Each structure stands twice: as C-alpha cells, then as structure tokens.
C-alpha cells in the first residue's frame, strides 16, 4: 500500500546526513509510483511531485543538518495541503432546520451515512434530526432507512414510493418545522452510473429544500473512479462537502488524496465502519500521518474523548503522560472501554502497535470486562495503586474474592502493565508531535 511504500522510501533517507539532488530524484520517483499505485489521479500526482521536489531542492533543505527529515516533513505537509489543510465542519443554518442532502452513486453509503450523521449531530450538537426517505426506486430502500432510524431512535419521514421526491421533501420540511426538528437529512436515490434522470431529480430536490449542505458520499474503495464521480456530481449540483466511506476496508486511500484537489470541495467526514458510530470528522493532517505510517494518535485520543467526559479525558491524558495510571483509573475507565468497542480497533491506530506481540491478549469482550471489574474490585486500595506489591498470596486472595482463577488474575496484571507501557509510548508520541521532531 501507499503507506508501506512511502515508509520504505522514507526509511532510506531517514537519518541520512546529506541528501543529494540524485537522492531526491530517487525518492520522488518512489513517491510518484506509490501514489499512482494507490490510484491517485495522475494530474494530482504530477502536481504533488513537482511541488515536493521544488521545496526539497530548496537551499534550506539541502543545507540543513537533517535533510532527510526535512524531506519527509515536506511530503507530509504537502499531503496535508492536498487534502485541504484543515478539517472543515458541516454547514449549519442560522435559521433551523439545517438541511443536508445526501447524494452519490448506489451503494456508496448514503443511507448508512445519513443515519451516522443524524446520530453524530444529536450527540455532538444536541440536534433533533429527521431522516427523509427520498429513495423511492431501490427495493426496500425505505425500509432500510426505517431500520436505521429505529436503531438510533431517530424519526424517519416517508410518503411511500408513489410520491415523487420533490413532494416528499416539501412535506418533510413542513413536518420538521411543525415538530421543531432542527436537522433534516434527505436520503436520496442513487444509480449505478450517473444519468440525466437522476441528476434532474436531485436538482429538483435541491431547489425545493435549499440545502445548507449537499453531501456527496463516495466509496473510497472505488479509487480513481471516485474522482470522476465527484466531478460529475459537483458539476450538476455544486456539492458543498464530501464523505468518504469504507475507509476501514482494504482501501488504497487514493481517493482521499485526489478528490479535494480535483473538485476543490472539502472532505468533511470519513466512514470507518458499517456501524452507526462509525463516522468521524476528516482531519487532513492526521490522514497524512496515517498514510505516512506514523499512526493516528490524535484520532485515538479523540475517540476516547467522545465516550469519556471532557474533564475525565483530560485527567486520563495527564495520567498517561505521567504514567501514574492505576487500577483505580482502570476501573473507572472500564465503562468507557465497554463503549469504545474492540480494543483491537484502537490499537490499530497506535504507531507500531500492530507489531506488538501482545495485542491479541489485550482484546476484551464485554463478559471479560465484567470479570476484570470483579478482579479489580477484590484488590485493596494499596494494590490498586501499586500492583507490584501483589505477590502470590495476595493473588490467591484476589482470585478467591472475585471468583476468578489465578491465571486470570495473572493475566490481568500483565495486561495492565502492557497497557501502561503502551500509554506511555503513545503519550510520548503525542508530545513528539508538538515539540520534538516527530520523524525520529
Ligand atoms: P447507498 O446505496 O448509497 O444508500 O448505500 P448504503 O448506505 O445502503 O451502503 C451500502 C453498503 O455499504 C452497506 O452494506 C453499508 O453497510 C456499507 N457501508 C456504508 N458505509 C460504510 C463504511 O464506512 N464502512 C463499511 N465497512 N461499510 C459501509
Ligand atoms: Mg440508500
């Protein structure tokens, strides 16, 4: 993949004392190939390589003490710029309701993303969303949206499949006003290919609903095609934002790099799972880091923060920094651990974690979490604070008290130490991002 490829190239010049023009040429060839292989649009690649080369050949790089690192930094900067520089938020209307129209090809993820977005808006901004069923063509499309709505407890407006989308939209907006629902998400139909009938219908819905956001939903797995799709939808509808779905899959990520630069429209969200909580704000800088294989530590912390309350998260962060994390903290975090989902997902975001041998053993299911809780609750205050005092006889007592086996008690203590080590590691990485050179 792109990240491995770039990483290998980086490795070659990383730490190199002196970089020659020839070195940079070799490296740029690698970058070009890697990007093309990742299905990035060739025009974008050309521009990217030209910009990076120009900066890399600049005198400040060639004469610096750490030219290799400087080049990597330039690649990262330019990748970030290519994806829009900064996160762009969803457009909100000053006068409720905010109207979002989901558009895109069939199967891109419009319906799923509509539900995810509704959930996110309710959670993050306390919005009262309404989902509007305007896909009257695909069999069972309306039921699909209703299922999504039921799952996240958000109302769905439908007039069946015999009323046209324009009229459905009109009535849905009236309904939203009546019910004081302030965030209307219109789920429209898609086609396998762009056609005129579809576009005309979408233009009609746009005219009736005057959306604050026309969210183009694009399947990241479609690579180069995604860019063409984005371009045509944009020409017809003047989209205002893009959601890139299925980034959790085995995608090559090329779409993320190309879409912004070809359409000039910001990627606002990324879909990271099929589940309703699998929508995340798109952060170009973090994406660039992830592509370069530095791990996405900030996303990880943010994910933790979403389910931990603010002050608690700050405390946790502080504890991680100072490594004063105890079993009491762990106990307090267990509910959050329950909400975070499989620890495996989180670990994937930690640099180097995938290479750690004990990652598997850290994965916990809800039942195991209950057992863990029982074990910790059987520890004394002193033991929770300083697990190193837990000798064999203490372990026996804890096992008996919690009704768990000695092996389980041992495993938990080992896991805890492992986790602490990892926290230390990624809080160090985070510090590195701000202060120290992050490329060492
Ligand atoms: P629509 O035709 O554009 O409305 O697409 P759907 O919302 O029906 O999604 C098509 C398929 O893609 C469904 O099976 C979804 O579960 C799946 N899907 C959508 N978004 C994501 C995502 O971010 N990750 C993964 N893994 N699957 C997704
Ligand atoms: Mg759909």
UniProtKB/TrEMBL annotation:
Its main location: cytoplasm. It is found in: Cytoplasm. Keywords: Cytoplasm, GTP-binding, Hydrolase, Nucleotide-binding, Ribonucleoprotein, RNA-binding, Signal recognition particle. PROSITE patterns: SRP54 (PS00300). The keyword Ribonucleoprotein applies. Residues 426-440 are annotated as: Disordered. One of its GO terms (biological process) is SRP-dependent cotranslational protein targeting to membrane. SMART domains: AAA, SRP54, SRP54_N. Its EC number is 3.6.5.4. GO terms for cellular component: signal recognition particle. The keyword Lipoprotein does not apply. GTP binds at residues 104-111, 187-191, 245-248. One of its GO terms (molecular function) is 7S RNA binding. It is an enzyme of class 3 (hydrolase). Residues 266-279 form the SRP54-type proteins GTP-binding domain. It catalyses: GTP + H2O = GDP + phosphate + H(+). Belongs to the GTP-binding SRP family. SRP54 subfamily. Involved in targeting and insertion of nascent membrane proteins into the cytoplasmic membrane. Binds to the hydrophobic signal sequence of the ribosome-nascent chain (RNC) as it emerges from the ribosomes. The SRP-RNC complex is then targeted to the cytoplasmic membrane where it interacts with the SRP receptor FtsY. Part of the signal recognition particle protein translocation system, which is composed of SRP and FtsY. Composed of three domains: the N-terminal N domain, which is responsible for interactions with the ribosome, the central G domain, which binds GTP, and the C-terminal M domain, which binds the RNA and the signal sequence of the RNC. This is Signal recognition particle protein. It comes from Macrococcus brunensis.
